[in-house]
Amino acid sequence: MTEPHDVTVSLRSAEPEDAAALQAFWRQEVAPCDLITGDDATLTMSLPRLADQLAAIAVAPNNLLLLAWAPEQELIGYLRLAASSETAIAQVAELGLIVAADYRHQGLGRALMATALDWAEQEAPLHRIQLEVQQRNQAARRLYQTFGFQEEGHLVESYRAVSGQWLDTILMARIL
């Protein structure tokens, strides 16, 4: 485990100007991480297109991209609530969370979750938040359970690790 960082962290919604920092964070933290699924499109997307996507997220009433910043504008974590614009499923958001490796197990994931769930309960037209987490990621599962997420399913061999090993994932959700 890394040494705790004694820094002041600020949380805020993503803005189009964050495109380069988000892409760099994705390249450094998300792409090599074997605990989450990644979207290679973020790595290869042009910065203007990514900025357009961030602008669209910012105005969507059922979507949130919350960023965690350390001093000197270092992006150290994010939480994404992604919901469709289709009427039948617009009230259901998928949650994705990642904290930079050097900042894990220090409360940042908890702060991101608390802020995002406050937003979801008070401002967003959401009814349900769901996620998939690898069965082996006990720390994340405990975090989600702390915030009222319930296990709803066990997906056998649903994720392939970098090593080639097939891993199980757990479907979790919370009704707001």
Automatic annotation (TrEMBL):
Enzyme Commission number(s) of this protein: 2.3.-.-
Lineage of source species: Bacteria, Bacillati, Bacillota, Bacilli, Lactobacillales
InterPro entries: Acyl_CoA_acyltransferase, GNAT_dom
Keyword Acyltransferase part of the UniProt annotation: yes
Organism: Lapidilactobacillus achengensis
Keyword Heme: no
Entry-linked Gene3D superfamilies: 3.40.630.30
SUPFAM superfamilies: Acyl-CoA N-acyltransferases (Nat)
Pfam families: Acetyltransf_1
Protein name: GNAT family N-acetyltransferase
MF term (GO), any: acyltransferase activity
Domain N-acetyltransferase: 9-176
Superkingdom of the organism of origin: Bacteria
Keywords: Acyltransferase, Transferase
Class of this enzyme: transferase
